[in-house]
């Protein structure tokens, strides 16, 4: 991965040259090769794909994955060779309806976890289409699509881990495109699909729906209701069990949250971080700012203040580095490799996390200062005297 990032940064430096031009089709073609390069047909260092596979298998067999935890004895006849490596067998699913439908539909094509890896990589490539359209609307050169398209971390996470975040990112980017085109009903439908693909997208939904008007809001509510209805035939406690467990106990590679947790405790830190994000959402929703700035600000706040910052979560904000080319986000994707060290050896703890985030926030602060520091005008030579050359 370090070697891959060395190539990645070398290419980004080359792209800074004004004479360097790359057509969009070449970027997408190379992106497809990069996305498929890590593919091995099975998860390599992460077990989430086995859970995705299990959820899709249950729904394909007509079983509501929110009703039973994988370890429930009622599901014993469905256990296969992919069941033992699955983690958190005591927790019901946390994955929302759109992800469930896609996992069930693809199970009929390939009843193995391999389909999950291909699904994640394919949707990640699909994200390039609305992202490129947004870039062109803003007048950003096509070559900066490579910031997202060629990122080694995302290629590895999706082709080897099968994480389904690109589904939500695709719908989010499409919703932003619909808002900029003033297609309000379409924007409402698309943001509903984004939320139902990744629950965290609910934090940016108010920003989007405010621009969509009442028609967009109505369309979003109706579609969300229709897609969620098949899963609602279970007690509310079962429906929310997985999400409550995630919110109450998950902590991984956090930064600000880890500091707050050490000072005021985990529950208070979760409440404070959640309240801060909600205040930010309300404040931004009351302003008429640039939506393409506000959305990544909210998603970035979730990453900074939240208890979990898994490496693939950076995919929520990296597309916006193509719209606003910067140094911080590509560097952050490389620094997130440090989180793998604690996965391999949990005793490392802060020894890996402190340098990771100190460098990440340090680069961000340095770039912020350099962008907004007033630049002195270049000294001008005094006017020449008469008769001088």
Care to describe what's here?
The structure is a single chain. The protein is an all-alpha fold. It has one domain (22-370). It contains 20 helices and no strands. The longest helix has 24 residues, at 205-228. It is globular, with a radius of gyration of 23 Å. The model is unreliable at 381-389 (pLDDT under 50).
Structural class: mainly alpha
Per the principal axes of the C-alpha atoms, what is the gross shape?
globular
Radius of gyration (CA) equals: 23 Å
Number of strands: 0
| Helical content (DSSP H or I, runs of 4+) | 55-70%
Poorly predicted residue ranges: 381-389
Largest sheet: none
Beta-strand portion reads under 5%
Q: Helix count, per DSSP?
A: 20
Domain count, please report it.
Answer: 1
Give the SSE map.
Blueprint: H1 2-15, H2 24-36, H3 48-60, H4 97-107, H5 114-126, H6 128-138, H7 146-149, H8 152-161, H9 165-180, H10 184-195, H11 205-228, H12 236-239, H13 241-249, H14 256-264, H15 266-285, H16 291-305, H17 319-323, H18 328-335, H19 338-344, H20 350-372
Give a nutshell description of this structure.
The chain is an all-alpha fold. It has one domain.
Which key terms come to mind for this protein?
389 residues, mainly alpha
